[in-house]
Each structure stands twice: as structure tokens, then as C-alpha cells.
Amino acid sequence: MEEKNISSRGGILIITGTSIGAGMFSLPVLTSNMWFGWAILFLCVSWYCMYSSALYVLETNQKFAHGANFDTMTKELLSPAFRFVNGLSIVFVSYILVYAYISGGGSMLAHSVNTALNIEIDSFTSRLIFALILALIVSFSTKAVDKFTTAMLGGMVISFSLAIFTLLSGKEISLLLPFENMLERLPFAWAALPSLMVCFGFHSNIPSLVKYYNKDSSKVLKSIRYGSLLALAIYILWLLATFTTIGRDGFEAVVSAGGNMGALVGALEKDSTSSILSLMLQIFANFAVATSFLGVALGLFDFLSDMFKLDDSLKGRTKAAIITFLPAVVFSLFFPNGFIYAIGYAGFAAAVFALFTPVALAKKARATMPDTDFEVSGGNARMMLVIVFAGAVMIFQTLAMLGLLK
Question: What is the pTM of this model?
């Protein structure tokens, strides 16, 4: 009876919090070449396809026993080869995002220390400090992650609201309206598609919410729908604020500086003499990357602990921490400004477990398992749309990697 009284508000915040994070700081940079019109259109398309695939995860998960997760579902319904590829994509995305957040977080830490204390920290030292502090939190316990994440989410809400209000005050909206060369800017939209998909990467939360709400599909559905819509609204506000503040020409300097978080926040700060804006941007940026890092790293930490059968002792958790964080730290030594590129590669692999796998699971579950109280509407046409979108993400990321897209 207690589970029935749990509000869906918590699930909404979990979905929004998982979606909103350090990826916000890649979004304006990645969409600056396509500009506002294409950015909003493709962002909405990405939301709809990712929202639909999330519903397929919910539909399938409802047909399994309480507490079933992705691995259980793929093991039961899909071939061993598909299950292996799906698991590999999860590990790859987790590692690449941990690296991306170390790259972005180190950049933001260096920028904040330089602004506040006028102390220069080299890029590798800042990344190492950032990784070590948050790795200790993850390694300590899940409860520690929960406490830190809750506190930082509160700080994110306040700092984001104040920053957006300041950035939008008195801005020239006409900067958003250069539509005369929209067709020329379309190739930039294709190149950014994989990264836009990552903006709604909350699918790993769905089995947890199904378990939390005791398979009450209506509450999970509300969490997915309103949580993802809230994330979409926040992204649109963020693009509106950054585009009108920096302008198209200003983004060239951000990209030439590596496109990292520190470069973007620095460009936003230059437009205003407000010390409050500078402080709010830095608080929001540091909290955003930290919450994203903690969520992704905790999932990878637990996944690897289970894979290698590492116990919860100090020795076991130390080993898990080493294999979780060391590869990303070493990689950041050789590619210090890989934040933007890493987000794109994550989109390529995430297309497997966040788009292809949910459709495959739902299709097989409908054919072999009893119906439940929830089934995604739209039939095969909606499934095909998600598959086409997944294929487009992988094709355009491949073309971008080969230098065939701008």
C-alpha cells in the first residue's frame, strides 16, 4: 500500500536530472553552426524518438518479474550475440561519458579557480583533481552519491534559474532569425544529430522506476513524459539564452578554443559585467558536470563490480574504482579537449541500447509474452520511425568521423 502513495514527482525529477547535465554545455556548441531553427526542430525530433523508445522499455519491463533489468530482458528475449552487442554498447557509452565529464569538469574547475583565485592550473592537474574527488565519492557508497547528487541538484535549479533570467534580460531576439541560408546550414544539423540524441539518455532509469513504483505503469509513464518534456523545455531556454548572448560569430572563438565547458562559460561571462551571472554560471556548470559524472560513473562502477565479481570490501571497491576511472583519466591525458567529440561517439553507441534494443525487446515481447495494462500506441509505424532515427544517428556519426559532414 505504501508504494501506491508514492508521487510520480520524484520519477519526473529523476528523468529530468539524468537528462540534464554536462551535456547541456555541448549542446550550444554543437548546434551553433545549424543555428536556432534547425536546432529546435532536430532537438524535438530527437526527444520524440527517445521518448518513444523509452516507452518500449517500459512496456517490455512490465511483462517481467519485479526488479528485472536490461540484462535480464535481453537475455530472455534476444539472441546471445545481440545481448553481447547491447552490453558492449553500454560499457562503451559509460566509459566515453566518464572521459567526457572528466574533460569537461577539469576544464570548468580550472576556469573557476582562475576566476575566483587568479590561480592558473594546468589542464591535466585540474582533470586529475576533479576525477579523484568524485571517484572517492562513488567508491565510498551509493548513499554518498545520493546525498551529493541531491544537494547539487538543488544548487543547479537555483543557479540555472538566476543565470537564465540574467542572460535573457534585454537580449536581441532578432539574432535567432537568420533564415535566409537555412538549406546551406542543413549539413550541420545532420552532423549534430548523434549528440542531440544523448540529451535524452535516461533509459537506464526506467527499470529502476518500474521497480520503485511497483510496476504502476501510469506513474512511470508520467515520469517519462513530463520528465523528458521538462528537459526539452530547459534545453530550449538554454539555447535561447546562449545564442542571443554569444551570437554566431562568438561561437567561432568557443569552437577554436576546443569547445569545452570552460570556453563556453567564459564566452557567456564576457558579455556581461554582472558578477552574479559569472558566479551562477560557474556554480551551475560545476554542479551539472558533477551530477552527470556521479550518475554515469556509479552505473559503470556497479556494472563492472558485478561483471568481475568484486565484493563490497575495501579491496573490492578499490579494484572497481581503478578499472572504472583509470582508463578515462589516462585517455584525458592524451586528448584533453575531447568533451565535444566524446559526446558524439556516445551517441553512436547509445543508439544500440537506447533505440534499437527497446524496439527489438518490445517486438519480441509482444509476440511471445502475455499482454499487460500498458502498450505503446502507434503500432509498427512508430517502431519503424525509431529504427530509422537510430540508423540515421549511426550513419551521420560515421560520416562525421570520416570528415564527410561539416
Answer: 0.81
